């Protein structure tokens, strides 16, 4: 297991380098001159050219990319155009808010999705099964920003039950987490149902039932554990989706997180902030999927580590 973990860590290195290359190319393809923005609208050509030299924008592409990777590996993501502060400190002040939002939303998605999927699979073709799948389809179809606005409109404003903005207290967590976690719960429910239906018709499940094992143990001990492999994969992918969805959710609920910060940076054409934020979120997504790969072996000992 240790060797496998080290091997998987080493395999993430090319992925990380690919991420840095894509992020670097993306920011170079966006229209606009960072030097012009940093020098100001009234700067003359000489001042802009001086700024380009200071930023290293006149260097060859490979030299710029190498410098970017080396600096990023040391935690230096440059300075914000707007504030002049280090990008790493600007991101650090908001990073954990977004991670916390995505984490709680993932927990909610797993909790609701697993229960709904198991019930739907064990009550196949019943009214409850149809109801859960219709609800899951509804959850998949709703844009999270629209759901957030509806929750504010019908639960926060008329009754003053919950705050409509901010982050930190349990009351402030509830609406954003529901908004962001609903679609994930729907996907996990559908995947859990599909995987459970495949597993509960296997021979070893029939054998367990023939031996008189209680149905509860058959479902939760034997069937669910083997059905979790594809579900865990979906959870890992959903975490990345939730990080992206946090952009709109944080904007709707005025949460001072990294997603909202990126939107503001794009509007202000603060390229270093956008580049650094995308890189950090992409690295987090790579790390989460590394943990998913490791969890496969934990859930099912029959999976070969090679």
Automatic annotation (TrEMBL):
What highest taxon heads this organism's lineage?
Bacteria
State whether keyword Cell membrane applies.
yes
Q: Where is it mostly found?
A: membrane
Q: How does it sit in the membrane?
A: Multi-pass membrane protein
Where is it localised? Cell membrane
The entry lists its GO molecular-function terms as:
nickel cation transmembrane transporter activity
UniProt keywords (A-Z) are:
Cell membrane, Ion transport, Membrane, Nickel, Nickel transport, Transmembrane, Transmembrane helix, Transport
Transmembrane annotation, as ranges: 12-30, 101-119, 131-153, 173-192, 227-253, 273-292
* One Pfam family named in its UniProt record: BPD_transp_1
- The ABC transmembrane type-1 domain sits at 95-292
One cellular component (GO) term of this entry: plasma membrane
* Family listed: Belongs to the binding-protein-dependent transport system permease family. OppBC subfamily.
Q: How does it assemble?
A: The complex is composed of two ATP-binding proteins (NikD and NikE), two transmembrane proteins (NikB and NikC) and a solute-binding protein (NikA).
Which PANTHER family does the record cross-reference, listed alphabetically? DIPEPTIDE TRANSPORT SYSTEM PERMEASE PROTEIN DPPB-RELATED
Q: Indicate what this protein is called per its UniProt record.
A: Nickel import system permease protein NikB
Biological source species: Salipaludibacillus keqinensis
């Amino acid at each position: 297991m240790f060797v496998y973990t080290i091997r998987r860590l080493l395999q993430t290195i090319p992925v990380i380098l690919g991420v840095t290359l894509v992020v670097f190319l993306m920011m170079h393809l966006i229209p606009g001159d960072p030097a012009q923005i940093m020098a100001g609208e009234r700067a003359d050509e000489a001042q802009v050219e001086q700024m380009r030299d200071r930023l290293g924008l006149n260097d060859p592409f490979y030299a710029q990319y190498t410098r970017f990777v080396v600096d990023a590996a040391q935690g230096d993501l440059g300075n914000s155009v707007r504030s002049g502060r280090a990008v790493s400190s600007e991101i650090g002040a908001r990073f954990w808010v977004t991670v916390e939002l995505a984490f709680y939303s993932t927990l909610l998605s797993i909790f609701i999705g697993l229960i709904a999927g198991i019930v739907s699979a064990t009550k196949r073709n019943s009214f409850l099964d149809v109801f859960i799948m219709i609800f899951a389809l509804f959850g998949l179809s709703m844009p999270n920003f629209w759901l957030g606005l509806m929750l504010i409109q019908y639960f926060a404003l008329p009754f003053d039950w919950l705050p409509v903005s901010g982050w930190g207290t349990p009351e402030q967590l509830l609406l954003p987490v529901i908004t962001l976690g609903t679609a994930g719960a729907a996907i996990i429910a559908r995947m859990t149902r599909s995987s459970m239906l495949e597993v509960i018709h296997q021979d070893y499940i029939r054998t367990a039932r023939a031996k008189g094992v209680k149905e509860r143990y058959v479902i939760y001990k034997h069937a669910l554990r083997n059905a979790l492999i594809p579900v865990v994969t979906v959870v890992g992918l959903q975490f990345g989706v939730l990080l992206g969805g946090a952009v709109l959710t944080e904007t709707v609920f005025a949460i001072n997180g990294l997603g909202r910060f990126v939107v503001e940076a794009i509007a202000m054409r603060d390229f270093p902030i956008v580049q650094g934020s995308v890189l950090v979120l992409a690295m987090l997504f790579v790390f989460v999927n590394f943990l998913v790969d490791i969890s496969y072996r934990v859930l099912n000992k029959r999976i070969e580590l090679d």
